[in-house]
Amino acid sequence: MVEMLQQYCDRVARYSTAGYSVVIRNIIHYNNLHLKEDLPLSTLTARFNLSRSYLSDQLHREVHSNLTDYVTLTRIQFAANLLRYHRYTITQAAQEVGIPVVHYPPVQAHHRRDAVPLRPVESHRGLRDEPAKKENFAAALSLLAMLCSMVL
After folding, report:
1. For the CA atoms of the chain, what is the radius of gyration?
2. Can you give the residue ranges of every domain in the chain?
3. Closest C-alpha among 96, 118, 98 to residue 106
4. Over the stretch 24-54, which tens digit does the pLDDT of each residue have?
5. Strand segments (E) across the chain
6. Which DSSP category does 83 fall into?
């Protein structure tokens, strides 16, 4: 019970929007409720009747990030929480927060022994008969690509 209360208090402190302006607070709450959707700047400016430059400047000033990076980071954090606390699979967590799961079709080398496939081949590492593993692998690759793009 004490551990659950500590987790609750940690989450309240982590997700508190008390230090933000009303505009950014509304944007953050809208973002958190609509993670599955595409959230371009134009959608939010139309929804909240704001100019693009004003919203962009406010985001940079208060969140220290542009909208795309903020939404991506929020999606990754929510996916990580789903994986940690709710025992979702990687694919389920990615789909729940709107991260596209890219399925790579197998590519066979064309009659040359030295040719290297451009994408993973289905028969490698026991993935042939296990579509769930392939989906989880694809979702993990998507999450990893998003994390790398945030770092670089």
Report:
1. 20
2. 1-64, 89-109+116-152
3. 118
4. 999 999 999 999 999 999 999 999 999 999 9
5. none
6. H
Kindly report each contact of residues 87-96 with a partner whose C-beta sits within 8 Å and lies 24 or more positions away, as own/partner: 89/132, 89/135, 89/136, 89/139, 90/136, 90/139, 90/140, 90/143, 91/132, 91/135, 91/136, 91/138, 91/139, 93/139, 94/139, 94/142, 94/143, 95/139, 96/35, 96/36
Whether the pTM exceeds 0.70: the reply is: no
Q: What is the pLDDT of residues 11-21, one digit of tens each?
A: 666 666 778 89
Q: Find the distance separating the first CA and the last CA of the chain, reported in whole Å.
A: 41
Helix 52-62 crosses helix 41-48 at what angle (to 10 degrees)? 100
Which pairs count as long-range contacts for 25-32, CB under 8 Å and 24+ apart, including other chains? 27/55, 27/59, 28/63, 31/70, 31/71, 31/74, 32/74, 32/78
d(CA 96, CA 79): 8
